[in-house]
Fold this protein.
Amino acid sequence: MLFAIFSLLSAAVFVTLDAVDVAFTEAAVGAGISTILMLATLAVTRTREERAHRLKPLAWVATVFTGAVLLYGTMDYPQVGDPTAPAHQHVAPRYIQQSGEEIGIPNVVTSVLASYRGYDTLGEVTVIFTAGIGVLCLLGPVITLFGKREKD
Amino acid sequence: MVHFNYWVVIVLIMTGLYVVMAQTNLVKKVLGLNIFQVAVFILYISVGKLAGGTAPILAAGFDRYANPLPHVLILTAIVVGVATTALALALVIRIDKAYGTIDEMEIEELDKEQE
Amino acid sequence: MQHHVVLRIVCKLLIPLILLFALYVQFHGDYGPGGGFQAGVIFGAGFILYGIVFGLRSVQTVAPPPVVVMVSCAGVLLYALVGVAGPMMGGNYLDYSVLLDDPVAGQHLGIILIELGVGLTVASTMTALFYAFAERR
């Protein structure tokens, strides 16, 4: 449940960062589907916390060290929303200026997703499909194309 | 406060990393990976933000839009993320079926007993 | 689940709206926020809600598992075949400008077909994932 709330909050963060498409997806996926899958797994597996969780010093040190390194790395990063940041210099202006004439649809995210980066999206769809097939294979012969239902 | 978005990302990354390393429960490890993943999403989206800009849907009267490219990458990454999370959880269910537990330490002990 | 009258009635009211909204997001994705990925997960969530409230058997009579898997394959194939149509008509792979005489209209058609493929695959894969996990109970 906390995980669903976390997802919904991050969707709200995406809206404030002007990423409406992403927020949409995150809200539907995070608050809906992945929470249900997580709960289903917990229901299937017998979860019981036998040992109390101990603080692991080594993991703690490694985490803090990683955080410190990342913090050091962000020191010379551009400020949020800075128009001169490198991310806004390369292909994005071209997409925003040209896609209206070349593709003819107002949502730039859709035109980049489906047209300019069609290969990427084909790959992503294939990954989703493969993951789905992988889950069906792992969780037993739930589905056979000839309509026979077997239980293992 | 100029880098607060990166700080949020770093805190989330640290949380996810600690959960993945310190928890022995495999479902919690998957949850930690998910938190890590959301941290990366927020990093990308905050890089795409443009001050004074609006959502990248072309409309009359606006000339500053957020960078659409990170949005595209993260949009697909979220859906791929849920598919791969489902695969990981399916593996957890199979592990539970094979070992009767989803605790990493117990699985290791069971493995040692078998040898 | 027989006793939750409020839950069942509210779900009966909500599910058509969810599916309708998913279709809106799917086909309005060119003009507003939305597209195949979002529509797919919303559509899948509609089926999952139905499955949770009314039971796995009743949702599987609406969307039988073999059909779901086939739709999932069909979505990927639709995407790939629209890509193949490009070289057949003298363009590059996944180049939609050549699909129609007007390049802009061709792009538009290509994007609608591609988004449809994405939406079909995502929706059916999400439903299939739910089936796989729910069958384990």
